[in-house]
Amino acid sequence: HPLAIARLRHAAVPPSHLLFTMCSVSDAHALSDAETTYLYLYRLGVPFPSLATSAALPFASCNVKCTHYPPHNPFSSDRLHLHSFGHHYTMCGVHGNSIRLHDLIVRLIAATAMRETGCAAHLEKGLGSSTAAGKKIDAVLSFANRTVFAGSTATAVMTIDVSRLCPLLPSHLQTAARDAAATIDERAREKNAKHLTGCIGLGRAFLPIVVTTLGGIGPPASRDFLSSLFANSMAAERAAGGSGQLTARRRSDFFRSIMVLLVRKQHLATIDLATPLARPAQPPPPKPSSRRKRKANANAAAQPAASQ
């Protein structure tokens, strides 16, 4: 089945394996029993027992504010797997769960870059990816000790934009079942089309970072860049006579932190948004039109009368 194939392909994208690698972890990386259950069920593609429909509650929907599957438009039979496997809730924007997870990942990357390289990281100012388009990226990293390339021009400034992706949603499923890398590369191309030219025009390099709901990070160049944030620390540790093990552990902990954030926040979103139903709700009444729209409608209605 395409869903099973896509899940297997994307579960193999590094560093999604880290939460299954046996090692000692800090309390910050320790998952609760409920979060661990979520991790295994989501990775294995087992329907969540807590989301199962029943004779008493045969329907399911997302939150009333969801634009896709509100209670008056619950999951149809051919889309019910988006509920029972939790796919929809990993990306739904209601209650800000998705954007908070995105922002936590961006802040983690910025804090790690500052600690390991001594760079300056800007998360609020100077985020425009061009001088005119009004588009923004997530972070600007200004390095004092490394050079990256903006087109053919060397620069010390790297701009990054983090994008979350659920490859198991219908819009990505067919591509994801064929090739995990193609799914990630497609999102990266969208980000490059949006930001790359403008960033180069500003003398900045640009790097899209795609994080999937199964824990994969890509494209490979983006994953390599994140690993390279630890290069100076590794060199310093080795020069001081160390084995590099301490830096390697920090690097693993960094990627593991992203995996933990994914599990915790996606689990929380599923609990928060999933809604069992005995029957579909009544559609909400249409919103009253604005005063300006009512005035325009009244004028339009008056014009034919005046012409007669």
Percent of sequence in beta strands:
5-15%
Task: Tell me the span between the first and last alpha carbons.
Answer: 65 Å
Task: Give the H and E element order.
Answer: HHEHHHEEEEEHHEEHHHEH
Q: Which blocks of ≥5 consecutive residues have pLDDT under 50?
A: none
Gyration radius, in Å: 23 Å
Helix content: 40-55%
Tell me the overall shape. Answer: globular
Total strands: the figure is: 9
Please tell me the overall pLDDT: 91
- Count of alpha/pi helices: 11
Derived from helix and strand composition plus strand pairing, the structural class reads alpha+beta
Largest sheet: 5 strands, mixed
What's the arrangement of strands in the largest beta sheet?
2-3-6-7-8
Topology overview:
Elements lengths: L1 H10 L21 H12 L14 E3 L19 H4 L2 H5 L5 H21 L2 E3 L16 E4 L5 E3 L2 E3 L1 E9 L4 H9 L1 H22 L3 E8 L4 E2 L1 H9 L2 H9 L5 H29 L1 E3 L13 H17 L1
Parallel strand pairs: 6-7
Antiparallel strand pairs: 1-9, 2-3, 3-6, 4-5, 7-8
Helix pairs in contact: 1-6, 5-10, 6-7
